[in-house]
Amino acid sequence: MTSDHGTDDARLQQLVDGIVRLAAGELSARIEPSAQRDAIDAVITGVNLLAEELGHIYADLEERVAARTAMLKRTQVELEKLVKTDALTGLANRTLLSERIHEATDAGAPGGHVPAVLILDLDSFKAINDTLGHSAGDAVLVEVARRLCTIVRATDTVARLGGDEFAVLVTGASVEEVLLIAHRAWECLQESMDIGTETVWTTASIGICLRNGSSTAEELVRDADIAMYQAKAQGRNKVQLFHPDMLDAVQERSRVTAELRSAAADGQLTLLYQPVVALASGRVTGVEALVRWHHPVHGTIMPDNFIGIAEETGLILELGRWVLHEGVAQLQRWKETAPDLTDFRLHLNLSAAELLRSDLVDDVRETLAENGAEAGRLVLEITESVLMSRETGEEQVLEKLRAMGIGLQIDDFGTGYSSISYLRSLPADTVKVDHTLIDNLETDPQQRKFVSAILQLISAAELEAIVEGIETAGQAAQLLEMGCLYGQGYFFGRPVPAEEILDLVRRQDQPR
Ligand code: C2E
Ligand code: MG
Ligand code: MG
Question: Is 349 in the pocket of ligand 1 (CB under 6 A)?
Answer without folding.
Answer: yes
